[in-house]
Amino acid sequence: MDGSGLMMDPTPRILADRRWLAWMNRRQSSSTMHPLEDEDLLQEILLRLPPQPSSLPRASLVCTRWHRILSDPKFPHRFRKHHQKPPLLGFFLVVPLGNRTFTPILDRPDRIPATRFALPQGHDLPQDQWHFMGCHHGLTVLINAWQCQIVMWNPLTGQLRRVTFPQSIRYKHEIFCHATVLCADPEGGHVHDDCFLSPFKLVMVSVRDRETCACVYDSTSGVWGNILSIVTMSTNIFIRHNILVENAIYFHGGGILAFDLEKQSLGVIDMPSDVDLRDFGTSQLLRMEDGGLGLAVLSFLTIQLWQRKSDCDGVVRWVLLQKTIELEDHLVPRRMGHDCIIVMVLIAGYDEEKNLIVLSTTGGNFMLQVGSMKTRNICEGNLISDETFYPYTNFYTTV
Protein backbone atom coordinates (compact mmCIF):
# COMPACT_ATOMS: atom_id res chain seq x y z
CA MET A 1 0.00 0.00 0.00
CA ASP A 2 1.41 3.41 -0.99
CA GLY A 3 1.00 6.79 0.75
CA SER A 4 -2.36 7.31 -0.84
CA GLY A 5 -3.69 4.14 0.72
CA LEU A 6 -3.79 2.17 -2.55
CA MET A 7 -2.58 -1.47 -2.73
CA MET A 8 0.62 -1.78 -4.86
CA ASP A 9 1.07 -4.57 -7.41
CA PRO A 10 3.78 -6.94 -5.93
CA THR A 11 4.57 -8.57 -9.28
CA PRO A 12 7.52 -6.31 -10.28
CA ARG A 13 9.18 -6.86 -6.86
CA ILE A 14 8.72 -10.64 -7.02
CA LEU A 15 10.12 -10.79 -10.53
CA ALA A 16 13.12 -8.69 -9.48
CA ASP A 17 13.80 -11.00 -6.52
CA ARG A 18 13.60 -14.04 -8.77
CA ARG A 19 15.99 -12.51 -11.30
CA TRP A 20 18.44 -11.67 -8.48
CA LEU A 21 18.31 -15.22 -7.07
CA ALA A 22 18.84 -16.71 -10.54
CA TRP A 23 21.84 -14.45 -11.10
CA MET A 24 23.33 -15.43 -7.72
CA ASN A 25 22.84 -19.13 -8.45
CA ARG A 26 24.59 -18.79 -11.80
CA ARG A 27 27.46 -16.93 -10.16
CA GLN A 28 27.86 -19.48 -7.38
CA SER A 29 27.70 -22.42 -9.78
CA SER A 30 30.37 -20.83 -11.97
CA SER A 31 32.69 -20.07 -9.00
CA THR A 32 32.22 -23.35 -7.10
CA MET A 33 34.09 -26.29 -8.64
CA HIS A 34 33.42 -29.94 -8.21
CA PRO A 35 35.83 -31.29 -5.56
CA LEU A 36 37.77 -33.30 -8.14
CA GLU A 37 38.24 -30.16 -10.24
CA ASP A 38 40.14 -28.48 -7.39
CA GLU A 39 43.82 -29.33 -8.04
CA ASP A 40 44.95 -29.03 -4.42
CA LEU A 41 42.02 -31.03 -3.10
CA LEU A 42 42.53 -33.74 -5.71
CA GLN A 43 46.18 -34.10 -4.71
CA GLU A 44 45.15 -34.51 -1.07
CA ILE A 45 42.69 -37.22 -2.10
CA LEU A 46 45.32 -39.07 -4.13
CA LEU A 47 47.79 -38.88 -1.25
CA ARG A 48 45.33 -40.92 0.79
CA LEU A 49 45.22 -43.84 -1.59
CA PRO A 50 46.30 -47.08 0.15
CA PRO A 51 50.10 -47.64 0.19
CA GLN A 52 49.78 -50.97 -1.64
CA PRO A 53 51.83 -51.27 -4.87
CA SER A 54 48.84 -51.28 -7.24
CA SER A 55 47.26 -48.05 -5.93
CA LEU A 56 49.19 -45.41 -7.86
CA PRO A 57 49.61 -47.31 -11.18
CA ARG A 58 45.87 -48.04 -11.34
CA ALA A 59 44.89 -44.50 -10.35
CA SER A 60 47.18 -43.06 -13.04
CA LEU A 61 45.05 -44.81 -15.69
CA VAL A 62 41.89 -42.92 -14.73
CA CYS A 63 42.69 -39.88 -16.88
CA THR A 64 45.61 -37.81 -18.15
CA ARG A 65 45.13 -35.28 -15.35
CA TRP A 66 45.51 -37.91 -12.62
CA HIS A 67 48.52 -39.36 -14.44
CA ARG A 68 50.14 -35.92 -14.58
CA ILE A 69 49.73 -35.44 -10.82
CA LEU A 70 50.93 -38.92 -9.90
CA SER A 71 53.95 -38.76 -12.23
CA ASP A 72 55.14 -35.46 -10.74
CA PRO A 73 58.61 -36.15 -9.22
CA LYS A 74 57.53 -34.53 -5.95
CA PHE A 75 54.43 -36.68 -5.47
CA PRO A 76 56.14 -39.97 -4.42
CA HIS A 77 57.92 -38.19 -1.56
CA ARG A 78 54.66 -36.63 -0.36
CA PHE A 79 52.94 -40.01 -0.65
CA ARG A 80 55.61 -41.73 1.46
CA LYS A 81 55.59 -38.91 3.98
CA HIS A 82 51.81 -39.17 4.41
CA HIS A 83 51.81 -42.94 5.00
CA GLN A 84 55.13 -43.13 6.90
CA LYS A 85 55.16 -46.94 7.20
CA PRO A 86 55.74 -48.85 3.94
CA PRO A 87 54.04 -52.17 3.25
CA LEU A 88 55.81 -55.51 3.53
CA LEU A 89 56.40 -56.62 -0.06
CA GLY A 90 58.00 -59.98 0.63
CA PHE A 91 61.11 -61.78 1.85
CA PHE A 92 64.59 -62.35 0.53
CA LEU A 93 65.38 -66.01 1.21
CA VAL A 94 69.11 -66.50 1.65
CA VAL A 95 71.01 -69.77 1.94
CA PRO A 96 74.20 -69.46 4.07
CA LEU A 97 77.04 -68.50 1.72
CA GLY A 98 74.71 -69.20 -1.19
CA ASN A 99 72.15 -67.71 -3.56
CA ARG A 100 69.18 -65.57 -2.64
CA THR A 101 65.65 -65.58 -3.99
CA PHE A 102 62.68 -63.30 -3.40
CA THR A 103 59.25 -64.51 -2.30
CA PRO A 104 56.42 -61.94 -2.75
CA ILE A 105 53.92 -61.89 0.12
CA LEU A 106 51.10 -59.74 -1.30
CA ASP A 107 48.18 -61.02 -3.33
CA ARG A 108 47.34 -59.78 -6.82
CA PRO A 109 47.14 -57.03 -8.00
CA ASP A 110 49.70 -55.85 -5.41
CA ARG A 111 52.05 -58.77 -5.96
CA ILE A 112 55.35 -57.60 -7.48
CA PRO A 113 57.08 -60.31 -9.58
CA ALA A 114 60.11 -61.93 -7.97
CA THR A 115 62.15 -61.14 -11.09
CA ARG A 116 62.00 -57.46 -10.11
CA PHE A 117 64.18 -58.30 -7.12
CA ALA A 118 66.96 -60.10 -9.01
CA LEU A 119 70.41 -58.64 -8.51
CA PRO A 120 71.13 -56.46 -11.57
CA GLN A 121 73.56 -57.82 -14.13
CA GLY A 122 76.39 -55.90 -15.73
CA HIS A 123 77.54 -54.29 -12.47
CA ASP A 124 80.32 -56.76 -11.68
CA LEU A 125 78.06 -58.40 -9.11
CA PRO A 126 78.44 -62.18 -9.55
CA GLN A 127 75.96 -64.02 -7.35
CA ASP A 128 78.51 -66.33 -5.75
CA GLN A 129 80.78 -63.55 -4.46
CA TRP A 130 78.25 -61.16 -2.96
CA HIS A 131 76.76 -62.18 0.37
CA PHE A 132 73.41 -60.79 1.47
CA MET A 133 73.51 -58.93 4.82
CA GLY A 134 69.92 -57.73 5.16
CA CYS A 135 67.43 -54.96 4.38
CA HIS A 136 66.77 -51.63 6.05
CA HIS A 137 64.76 -48.57 4.98
CA GLY A 138 64.12 -50.02 1.52
CA LEU A 139 67.80 -50.74 0.87
CA THR A 140 69.54 -54.10 0.76
CA VAL A 141 73.16 -54.52 1.81
CA LEU A 142 75.61 -56.97 0.23
CA ILE A 143 79.28 -57.63 1.01
CA ASN A 144 82.12 -58.93 -1.11
CA ALA A 145 85.06 -59.68 1.19
CA TRP A 146 87.31 -60.56 -1.77
CA GLN A 147 86.78 -57.19 -3.42
CA CYS A 148 86.62 -55.45 -0.01
CA GLN A 149 83.40 -53.69 -0.99
CA ILE A 150 79.91 -53.12 0.36
CA VAL A 151 76.99 -52.49 -1.98
CA MET A 152 73.70 -50.83 -1.09
CA TRP A 153 70.95 -51.59 -3.58
CA ASN A 154 67.36 -50.42 -3.96
CA PRO A 155 65.58 -53.26 -5.83
CA LEU A 156 62.62 -51.10 -6.88
CA THR A 157 64.66 -48.30 -8.45
CA GLY A 158 67.77 -50.27 -9.39
CA GLN A 159 70.03 -47.72 -7.69
CA LEU A 160 73.41 -49.03 -6.52
CA ARG A 161 76.05 -47.48 -4.33
CA ARG A 162 79.44 -49.00 -3.54
CA VAL A 163 81.62 -48.31 -0.51
CA THR A 164 85.14 -49.71 -0.09
CA PHE A 165 86.19 -51.26 3.23
CA PRO A 166 88.27 -49.17 5.64
CA GLN A 167 91.97 -49.58 4.84
CA SER A 168 92.79 -51.45 8.07
CA ILE A 169 89.99 -54.06 7.58
CA ARG A 170 91.11 -55.30 4.15
CA TYR A 171 92.11 -58.80 5.19
CA LYS A 172 89.93 -60.43 2.52
CA HIS A 173 89.28 -64.13 3.28
CA GLU A 174 90.78 -63.87 6.78
CA ILE A 175 87.82 -61.95 8.16
CA PHE A 176 84.12 -62.46 8.73
CA CYS A 177 82.11 -59.31 7.99
CA HIS A 178 78.68 -57.86 8.45
CA ALA A 179 77.17 -54.48 7.57
CA THR A 180 73.94 -52.53 7.89
CA VAL A 181 72.72 -49.16 6.65
CA LEU A 182 70.95 -46.51 8.74
CA CYS A 183 69.29 -43.21 7.93
CA ALA A 184 71.26 -40.21 9.21
CA ASP A 185 69.04 -37.31 8.12
CA PRO A 186 69.03 -34.82 11.03
CA GLU A 187 66.00 -32.93 9.74
CA GLY A 188 62.52 -33.70 10.99
CA GLY A 189 60.00 -35.08 8.57
CA HIS A 190 62.46 -37.32 6.76
CA VAL A 191 60.78 -40.28 5.13
CA HIS A 192 62.56 -43.61 5.10
CA ASP A 193 62.91 -45.27 1.71
CA ASP A 194 64.16 -41.92 0.42
CA CYS A 195 67.50 -42.74 2.03
CA PHE A 196 69.56 -42.76 -1.19
CA LEU A 197 68.61 -39.10 -1.54
CA SER A 198 69.49 -38.27 2.09
CA PRO A 199 72.51 -38.68 4.37
CA PHE A 200 73.03 -42.23 5.64
CA LYS A 201 75.45 -44.15 7.81
CA LEU A 202 76.90 -47.52 6.91
CA VAL A 203 77.94 -49.63 9.90
CA MET A 204 80.48 -52.39 9.37
CA VAL A 205 81.69 -55.02 11.83
CA SER A 206 84.33 -57.66 11.26
CA VAL A 207 86.05 -60.51 13.11
CA ARG A 208 89.63 -61.65 12.67
CA ASP A 209 91.36 -63.94 15.17
CA ARG A 210 88.56 -63.21 17.67
CA GLU A 211 89.21 -59.47 17.44
CA THR A 212 85.93 -57.75 16.60
CA CYS A 213 86.10 -54.32 14.96
CA ALA A 214 83.37 -51.79 14.17
CA CYS A 215 83.42 -48.68 12.04
CA VAL A 216 80.91 -46.17 10.64
CA TYR A 217 80.90 -44.67 7.15
CA ASP A 218 79.28 -41.23 6.75
CA SER A 219 77.79 -40.57 3.31
CA THR A 220 78.03 -36.80 3.78
CA SER A 221 81.79 -36.74 4.27
CA GLY A 222 82.44 -39.92 2.28
CA VAL A 223 84.93 -41.23 4.85
CA TRP A 224 85.06 -43.93 7.53
CA GLY A 225 85.29 -42.96 11.18
CA ASN A 226 87.58 -44.36 13.85
CA ILE A 227 87.74 -48.14 14.19
CA LEU A 228 86.69 -49.59 17.53
CA SER A 229 87.82 -53.06 18.58
CA ILE A 230 87.12 -55.62 21.30
CA VAL A 231 88.11 -59.23 21.98
CA THR A 232 85.18 -61.65 21.60
CA MET A 233 84.86 -65.36 22.31
CA SER A 234 82.79 -66.25 19.25
CA THR A 235 83.16 -65.72 15.52
CA ASN A 236 79.47 -66.53 14.93
CA ILE A 237 78.34 -63.23 16.33
CA PHE A 238 76.89 -61.88 13.08
CA ILE A 239 74.95 -64.76 11.58
CA ARG A 240 71.51 -63.58 12.73
CA HIS A 241 69.53 -60.43 11.99
CA ASN A 242 70.93 -57.25 13.51
CA ILE A 243 68.47 -54.78 15.00
CA LEU A 244 68.50 -51.10 15.94
CA VAL A 245 67.22 -50.28 19.44
CA GLU A 246 67.39 -46.61 20.43
CA ASN A 247 70.99 -45.53 19.65
CA ALA A 248 72.61 -48.96 19.49
CA ILE A 249 72.87 -51.76 16.93
CA TYR A 250 72.84 -55.31 18.24
CA PHE A 251 74.36 -58.22 16.32
CA HIS A 252 73.29 -61.68 17.38
CA GLY A 253 74.87 -65.07 16.80
CA GLY A 254 76.89 -66.98 19.37
CA GLY A 255 76.66 -63.87 21.54
CA ILE A 256 75.31 -60.33 21.42
CA LEU A 257 77.54 -57.53 20.17
CA ALA A 258 76.34 -54.03 21.13
CA PHE A 259 77.57 -51.03 19.14
CA ASP A 260 76.43 -47.73 20.67
CA LEU A 261 76.44 -45.18 17.86
CA GLU A 262 76.04 -42.17 20.14
CA LYS A 263 78.73 -43.11 22.67
CA GLN A 264 80.90 -44.78 20.01
CA SER A 265 81.41 -47.79 22.27
CA LEU A 266 81.58 -51.51 21.55
CA GLY A 267 80.66 -54.26 24.02
CA VAL A 268 79.31 -57.78 24.49
CA ILE A 269 76.08 -58.65 26.32
CA ASP A 270 75.78 -62.03 27.99
CA MET A 271 72.75 -64.20 27.32
CA PRO A 272 70.35 -65.05 30.17
CA SER A 273 72.21 -67.49 32.43
CA ASP A 274 69.57 -70.24 32.33
CA VAL A 275 69.01 -70.18 28.57
CA ASP A 276 70.68 -72.73 26.32
CA LEU A 277 71.27 -71.18 22.91
CA ARG A 278 73.60 -73.72 21.37
CA ASP A 279 71.13 -74.63 18.63
CA PHE A 280 70.88 -72.39 15.57
CA GLY A 281 67.44 -70.89 15.03
CA THR A 282 66.25 -71.04 18.64
CA SER A 283 66.59 -67.35 19.55
CA GLN A 284 66.05 -63.90 18.09
CA LEU A 285 66.72 -60.38 19.35
CA LEU A 286 63.58 -58.21 19.45
CA ARG A 287 62.65 -54.56 19.65
CA MET A 288 60.04 -54.48 22.40
CA GLU A 289 56.89 -52.33 22.36
CA ASP A 290 58.44 -49.85 24.81
CA GLY A 291 61.55 -49.57 22.63
CA GLY A 292 63.78 -51.80 24.79
CA LEU A 293 65.93 -54.77 23.84
CA GLY A 294 64.20 -58.13 23.99
CA LEU A 295 64.99 -61.75 23.28
CA ALA A 296 62.73 -64.52 21.99
CA VAL A 297 63.82 -68.02 23.02
CA LEU A 298 62.23 -71.01 21.30
CA SER A 299 61.81 -74.34 23.06
CA PHE A 300 59.94 -76.85 20.89
CA LEU A 301 56.48 -75.21 20.50
CA THR A 302 56.85 -72.45 23.09
CA ILE A 303 58.53 -69.04 22.81
CA GLN A 304 59.67 -67.34 26.01
CA LEU A 305 60.19 -63.58 25.96
CA TRP A 306 63.01 -61.83 27.83
CA GLN A 307 63.80 -58.12 28.14
CA ARG A 308 66.74 -56.06 29.37
CA LYS A 309 65.55 -53.97 32.33
CA SER A 310 67.14 -51.96 35.13
CA ASP A 311 66.66 -53.23 38.70
CA CYS A 312 66.28 -51.06 41.81
CA ASP A 313 70.06 -50.57 41.93
CA GLY A 314 70.21 -49.43 38.34
CA VAL A 315 71.82 -52.65 37.13
CA VAL A 316 70.57 -53.78 33.72
CA ARG A 317 69.65 -57.47 33.63
CA TRP A 318 67.66 -59.94 31.57
CA VAL A 319 64.14 -60.35 32.95
CA LEU A 320 61.85 -63.23 31.96
CA LEU A 321 58.45 -61.81 31.00
CA GLN A 322 55.21 -63.49 32.00
CA LYS A 323 54.03 -63.54 28.41
CA THR A 324 54.79 -66.76 26.54
CA ILE A 325 53.73 -67.75 23.04
CA GLU A 326 52.25 -71.20 22.58
CA LEU A 327 52.86 -71.92 18.91
CA GLU A 328 50.55 -74.91 18.86
CA ASP A 329 47.64 -72.48 19.19
CA HIS A 330 48.78 -70.24 16.32
CA LEU A 331 50.50 -72.29 13.63
CA VAL A 332 48.70 -74.10 10.85
CA PRO A 333 49.73 -77.76 11.31
CA ARG A 334 50.80 -80.20 8.63
CA ARG A 335 48.47 -83.12 8.11
CA MET A 336 50.10 -86.52 8.61
CA GLY A 337 47.66 -89.35 8.06
CA HIS A 338 44.68 -88.65 10.30
CA ASP A 339 46.60 -86.35 12.64
CA CYS A 340 47.68 -82.76 12.25
CA ILE A 341 51.02 -82.03 13.88
CA ILE A 342 53.94 -79.64 13.78
CA VAL A 343 57.06 -81.77 14.19
CA MET A 344 59.71 -79.04 14.44
CA VAL A 345 59.99 -75.24 14.49
CA LEU A 346 62.94 -72.87 14.01
CA ILE A 347 63.17 -69.07 14.02
CA ALA A 348 64.15 -68.07 10.48
CA GLY A 349 63.77 -64.28 10.40
CA TYR A 350 62.53 -61.08 12.04
CA ASP A 351 61.10 -57.69 11.04
CA GLU A 352 61.82 -55.15 13.78
CA GLU A 353 59.54 -52.46 12.32
CA LYS A 354 56.45 -54.68 12.24
CA ASN A 355 57.56 -56.97 15.11
CA LEU A 356 57.16 -60.10 12.98
CA ILE A 357 58.95 -63.37 13.69
CA VAL A 358 59.38 -65.78 10.78
CA LEU A 359 59.01 -69.43 11.77
CA SER A 360 60.14 -72.34 9.63
CA THR A 361 58.28 -75.56 10.39
CA THR A 362 57.77 -78.99 8.91
CA GLY A 363 54.32 -77.72 7.93
CA GLY A 364 55.49 -74.63 6.04
CA ASN A 365 56.94 -71.19 6.74
CA PHE A 366 54.89 -68.65 8.69
CA MET A 367 55.15 -65.12 10.01
CA LEU A 368 53.89 -64.40 13.53
CA GLN A 369 53.01 -60.87 14.66
CA VAL A 370 54.20 -60.81 18.28
CA GLY A 371 51.70 -58.21 19.49
CA SER A 372 48.48 -59.49 17.92
CA MET A 373 49.57 -63.16 17.73
CA LYS A 374 48.21 -63.32 14.17
CA THR A 375 49.92 -65.72 11.79
CA ARG A 376 50.13 -65.88 8.03
CA ASN A 377 51.55 -68.50 5.72
CA ILE A 378 54.55 -67.41 3.62
CA CYS A 379 55.17 -70.55 1.61
CA GLU A 380 54.30 -74.21 1.82
CA GLY A 381 56.77 -76.97 2.59
CA ASN A 382 57.31 -80.20 4.45
CA LEU A 383 60.92 -79.66 5.52
CA ILE A 384 62.61 -77.21 7.86
CA SER A 385 64.15 -74.46 5.73
CA ASP A 386 67.87 -73.72 6.00
CA GLU A 387 67.21 -70.28 4.52
CA THR A 388 67.18 -67.02 6.44
CA PHE A 389 64.16 -64.79 5.72
CA TYR A 390 64.93 -61.07 5.36
CA PRO A 391 61.75 -58.94 5.19
CA TYR A 392 61.69 -56.21 2.56
CA THR A 393 59.43 -53.18 3.01
CA ASN A 394 59.16 -50.27 0.60
CA PHE A 395 56.74 -47.99 -1.23
CA TYR A 396 56.11 -48.79 -4.88
CA THR A 397 55.39 -45.40 -6.47
CA THR A 398 56.14 -46.08 -10.14
CA VAL A 399 53.29 -45.09 -12.50
Automatic annotation (TrEMBL):
<feature type="domain" description="F-box">
    <location>
        <begin position="39"/>
        <end position="76"/>
    </location>
</feature>
<dbReference type="InterPro" id="IPR056594">
    <property type="entry name" value="AT5G49610-like_b-prop"/>
</dbReference>
<protein>
    <submittedName>
        <fullName>Uncharacterized protein</fullName>
    </submittedName>
</protein>
<dbReference type="Pfam" id="PF00646">
    <property type="entry name" value="F-box"/>
</dbReference>
<dbReference type="InterPro" id="IPR036047">
    <property type="entry name" value="F-box-like_dom_sf"/>
</dbReference>
<dbReference type="Pfam" id="PF23635">
    <property type="entry name" value="Beta-prop_AT5G49610-like"/>
</dbReference>
<feature type="domain" description="F-box protein AT5G49610-like beta-propeller">
    <location>
        <begin position="140"/>
        <end position="381"/>
    </location>
</feature>
<dbReference type="InterPro" id="IPR001810">
    <property type="entry name" value="F-box_dom"/>
</dbReference>
